[in-house]
Structures are given as structure tokens and as C-alpha cells.
Amino acid sequence: MDAAFLRAAPAFPAGAVAVFRHDQRQEGADVMHLEFYEVDVPIHDTSRALHGVHVFTGKASSVTEALARAHQVYDAAFAARQAGLELPGQQDGGWGARGVRDGWELDWASAKAGRWSNPNDWTRKTPYEL
């Protein structure tokens, strides 16, 4: 089994997102192959007219599953925050939501998902696009 670990920059401003890749490929005919996906969800804060993108990453078998998993972990984190509880943290497949902030709304209808590709990989021949 191959494992590649990439680390994000050590300091991020409020609202920034760190993307970590943990790519584990399992071989075997009876094992479903999971790819690492990125889900980009537009966010906005109407009180200050701020906009951005919240990035979720984790393993999934398809774009549809990646979108569903991102939405599930966000809903769980948001519910925990509303109840005054600690955020659930990372869940199966590496999915998780941190940095839930009051006043920010996610536009799930405009979310985009695709296989995650390291934008800093020296072997890339084309610019990074999702």
C-alpha cells in the first residue's frame, strides 16, 4: 500500500482552509477503490459582504458521494456548534469540518467536486483546476 502525505503551510488567516492529502490505494478485486476528492462550496457573510470558498477533502467513490459526505460532516459540525458541543472532528475517509463560523452561509447548490490533485506537484503539466 502506498501512502503520500503532504503538509499545508503552517499559518493560515481566519477563514483560510488547509488541504491535507492522505492517499491510500487498496488493491484487490473485492475492495472498492476510493479516490481522494475535493469539494469547493461558495460561502458568504451578508453582514459584511464577504465571500469565499470552504474546501472539504476526503475519500469517496464518486463526485456524488463526495458532495454527500462533505454536506454530512458540515451538518454534523454545525449542529454540534449550535448545541454548544465540541465539533466532531475527522470522520471516516478523512472527511471533517472545522472552523464553523456564525453568520457564514454555504451555497451547496453551487458546490463543485472533483478528484483532488496536488496543485504543487512538480509533475503537473497543466495549471490546477477543479
Write the layout of secondary structure elements.
Layout (H helix, E strand, L loop, with lengths): L2 E4 L14 E4 L10 E11 L4 E11 L2 H20 L22 E2 L5 E4 L15
Antiparallel strand pairs: 1-2, 3-4, 3-5, 3-6
Describe the fold and architecture.
- The protein is an alpha+beta fold and 130 residues long.
- Helix content is 15%, strand content 28%.
- It contains one helix and six strands; from the N terminus they run ββββαββ.
- Strands 3, 4, 5 and 6 form a four-stranded antiparallel β-sheet that branches. Strands 1-2 form a two-stranded antiparallel sheet.
- A hairpin with a 4-residue loop joins strand 3 (35-45) and strand 4 (50-60).
- The radius of gyration is 16 Å and the shape is globular.
Mean pLDDT: 75
Helices and strands, in order, run as EEEEHEE
Helix content: 10-25%
Compute the number of helices.
Answer: 1
Strand content: 25-35%
Structural class: alpha+beta
Which blocks of ≥5 consecutive residues have pLDDT under 50? 1-31
Shape: globular
What is the terminal separation in angstroms? Answer: 26 Å
Rg, nearest Å: 16 Å
Major sheet: 4 strands, antiparallel
Give the total of beta strands.
6
